[in-house]
Design goal:
heterodimer, A: 290 residues, mainly alpha, MetI-like fold, 2 domains, globular, B: 303 residues, 12 helices, 0% strand
Chain lengths: 290, 303
């Protein structure tokens, strides 16, 4: 009897010590995958990194192929998407935090932003194809792609902007209102300057998400072989992840290496963006608190 | 003279306020209008599809051969593939993500937490084509074939596991929030009664956060069902109704991608099938998201 109790106690003590080790396996799976992925990509593609990879147009010959048109396509589409999405998100955030009050309408609008965030990204592509490309007659163009990406990233950026506004202390807002400021003045002079660093971080977050999105652009633009720079917003286009998808789908080893090298370029761009976000936030926050 | 100026400037201020207030409201309506556009576009184009195909055939026929000469329009094979890869994904992501969340919220020091949390969140920031590449060229040939030698080049197993890694941060971060929201009184009370850490964690904290954890799993599952590029690259384009995960099978999203890579002129049945499959996928994920958001809401009120 006493033995049994003692044994159970011992088991419990061992389990108590073992649990965190067991739990850390979950963390390990995540960290190990990131590490293995980076090592695999870098080993597979670093020797193919060259200025030609960025400067050349795609080609059927892997030795000459580059991703120039894809990089330009990404810059145009994602850039335009950011110009649409970021102001829209900031305006939405101001409405929902400062202007709307607490009626039924704002709560419905909030709920629908959460709903939009749950729509699979490929659905944005399918609807973009049916509504923007054919319905509105924009064609399989940069502008159709940009609108799709802008709406796709809208919930993410809006939520960050709302969070950003909420971090501004209420004292400042109430103080301004007590002096007779209008809501617009409070939004522009009190909230915007203080929330801007975090809003921009949200914007960069949205941009990195948009750069990596292949599925909706695949539906809108198809798999194209483009050997010229885009000249207008109504031109057909391709983007970096689609160029990579194209190279990954080819069986030859040379294209696989090319894909690895392209992935390195893509990941470096995303890394640079995220680093910019962190630095920007740090600098702007510092300037405001001084 | 002076007062007139003041009155004019006050009036202008009020006007600006009104104008911008309306502008901001219009912006806030965009998300809602988009949802309406999404549903109406899908329903409108699907209506064309269902003029040719009966809903009964769509839901019950075991063959999906829209891109072949002899056409069958049963969604079951591609729905089955979506479900199967998502179940594999959640079978990896739910335990691993939950373990990571418990580790981070209950065991890790602030320092370790501040290092590990961003690394885990990085997982969801990597473009999914990159995961597709990794599943096709590393996970299957260099890793999974050691355990399952007869694994196909394209297969559901690697697809599911790779999607599992992608959604792991969703489970981890929502569960982490839920665990952190459990009041520390509950923990301290249990310690005061002489409980060990393992009992406090598994019998007090985890059950108290259960609805948040459940929600994280539902939302992650919905995300898994909508994943496209991993399924298209690593899962392949074979619309076969099977539960053999060693084989290539085409998910609903991969089918949409396949049609997109080819040529489906507007108005053809191939083109319309995009919208029918899209609507079916959206409705499935919408139900899951609805349930998930409801569960989150219930948990949010409790403390």
């Amino acid at each position: 009897m006493g033995d049994q109790v003692l044994r159970r106690r011992r088991v419990k003590i061992i389990m108590d010590k073992a649990l965190p080790i067991l739990l850390s396996i979950g963390v390990f799976i995540g960290v190990a995958t990131v590490a293995a992925l980076l090592i695999d990509v870098v080993l597979g593609g670093w020797h193919r990194l060259s200025p030609e990879l960025v400067m050349n147009y795609p080609s059927a010959r892997p030795t000459e192929a580059g991703m120039r048109s894809a990089i330009l396509g990404t810059i145009y589409t994602v850039g335009l998407a950011a110009v649409i999405c970021i102001p829209l998100s900031i305006a939405t955030a101001f409405y929902l935090t400062e202007f709307s009050g607490t009626g039924r309408l704002p709560s419905i609008l909030r709920y629908n932003i959460a709903n939009l965030a749950g729509v699979p990204s490929i659905i944005f592509g399918v609807v973009g194809l049916g509504f923007l490309v054919y319905g509105l007659g924009l064609g399989r163009s940069i502008i159709a792609g940009a609108f799709t990406l802008a709406i796709l990233t809208l919930p993410l950026v809006t939520v960050t902007c709302i969070e950003a506004i909420k971090t501004v202390p209420d004292d400042l807002r109430f103080g301004a209102y007590a002096l007779g400021a209008t809501k617009l003045q409070v939004a522009r002079r009190i909230l915007l300057p203080r929330a801007l660093p975090m809003m921009l971080t949200g914007g960069i977050l949205g941009v990195s998400r948009a750069i990596g999105e292949a599925a909706p652009i695949l539906v809108i633009s198809g798999l194209l072989f483009i050997r010229e720079d885009p000249a207008s917003l109504f031109d057909r286009f391709t983007v970096m992840p689609l160029q990579l998808f194209n190279w990954i789908s080819r069986p030859q080893m040379a294209f696989r290496e090319l894909a690895s090298a392209g992935i390195i370029v893509l990941l470096l761009i995303l890394l640079a963006l995220n680093a910019t976000a962190i630095i920007l936030r740090h600098k702007l926050t510092k300037r405001l608190t001084e | 003279m002076m007062t007139e100026d003041v009155i004019r400037s006050l009036r202008r201020r009020r006007l600006y306020n009104k104008v911008f207030s309306l502008l901001f409201m219009a912006s806030a309506l965009v998300a809602t209008i988009t949802l309406v556009v999404i549903y109406s576009t899908l329903i409108y184009e699907s209506a064309g599809f269902f003029q040719h195909v009966s809903i009964v055939e769509f839901l019950t026929s075991p063959k999906w051969t829209v891109l072949f000469d002899e056409k069958h329009f049963g969604v079951l094979p591609i729905f089955n593939a979506t479900l199967l890869t998502s179940v594999i994904a959640i079978a990896l992501a739910a335990p691993a993500g939950l373990a990571a969340a418990i580790f981070l919220s209950e065991y890790a020091s602030l320092r370790i937490r501040s290092v590990i949390k961003p690394v885990i969140e990085t997982l969801s920031g990597i473009p999914t084509v990159v995961y597709g590449y990794f599943a096709l060229y590393f996970l299957t040939p260099e890793f999974l074939r050691l355990v399952v030698p007869d694994l196909g080049i394209h297969n559901a197993l690697a697809t599911g596991l790779m999607i599992g890694v992608l959604i792991l941060p969703i489970v981890a971060s929502i569960s982490d929030d839920a665990l952190l929201a459990v009041p520390s009184d509950l923990r301290l009370g249990a310690y005061a009664l002489g409980a060990r850490k393992i009992d406090v964690t598994l019998r007090i904290v985890v059950p108290a956060a259960l609805s948040g954890i459940t929600a994280s799993i539902i939302l992650a599952f919905a995300r898994a069902m909508g994943e496209t590029m991993i399924a298209a690259i690593a899962g392949g384009f074979r619309p076969i109704l099977t539960i053999d995960v060693k084989q290539s099978m085409e998910t609903m999203t991969a089918f949409i991608a396949q049609v997109a890579t080819g040529d489906a002129p507007q108005g053809t049945i191939e083109y319309q099938s995009l919208f029918a499959v899209g609507l079916f996928l959206l409705l499935t994920t919408a139900v899951l998201n609805f349930v998930g958001l409801r569960v989150v809401k219930r948990w949010a009120i409790r403390y």
